[in-house]
Amino acid sequence: MDDRQFRNAMGKFATGVTVVTTELNGEVHGMTANAFMSVSLDPKLVVVSIGERARLLPKLKEANKFTVNILASDQQEISMIFAGQLKDQKKTVSFERLEGQAVIPGALAQVVCEVSAEHVEGDHTLFIGKVIDIRLEEGDPLVFFSGRYRTLAEETN
């Protein structure tokens, strides 16, 4: 199988959209990611997967803390900014604070983590994060499927 076929197959799994942030020397750094999942309830752990070429990788390793912001359906532009699709707009993003860490206002969930372990697998590093605080909001999620942003459809009976 070639790389494109693998990517297309993985794109058939609908995911939520997150922005992973970390802060280093007073500057917030972040990237859009859909490689995120919960790992454990006791202790409360999550994992994010960061590519070896991502600019966020060395910053996250040094900071040893990160936040996961699960985006709402009206936050596609935020996702695109942190995915590098809307250049020169990162400066327009404002942040709130949770446990002293930068989080994205309006995100459905803001999850603050301390890195408890790192595992290099293939061309990514998996960061296991011990959850130290969470803030929740009501709303619908931003969804990504088959290379496109989507929203949930209302169930009709």
Coarse morphology: globular
Number of strands: 12
Q: Can you give the mean pLDDT?
A: 93
Structurally, the number of domains stands at: 1
The percent of residues in helical segments reads: 10-25%
**Which oligomerization state do the chains in this entry correspond to?**
single chain
Give the CATH level 1 class: Mainly Beta
Order of helices and strands: HEEEEEHEHEEEEEE
Q: Structural class of the helices, strands and pairings?
A: mainly beta
Largest sheet descriptor: 7 strands, antiparallel
The total of helices stands at 3
Strand order of the largest sheet: 3-2-6-9-10-5-4
Gross CATH architecture? Roll
Q: Report strand %.
A: over 45%
Give the CA-CA distance, first to last residue.
41 Å
Radius of gyration: 15 Å
Characterization of the model:
The chain is mainly beta. It contains 3 helices and 12 strands; from the N terminus they run αβββββαβαββββββ. The chain has a 7-stranded antiparallel β-sheet. Strands 1-11-12 form a 3-stranded antiparallel β-sheet, with no helix packed on it. The protein has a two-stranded antiparallel ribbon with strand order 7-8. The radius of gyration is 15 Å and the shape is globular. The model has no long low-confidence stretch (mean pLDDT 93). This is Flavin reductase (DIM6/NTAB) family NADH-FMN oxidoreductase RutF. Keywords: Oxidoreductase. InterPro entries: Flavin_Rdtase-like_dom (IPR002563), NADH-dep_flavin_reductase (IPR050268), Split_barrel_FMN-bd (IPR012349). It holds the Pfam family Flavin_Reduct.
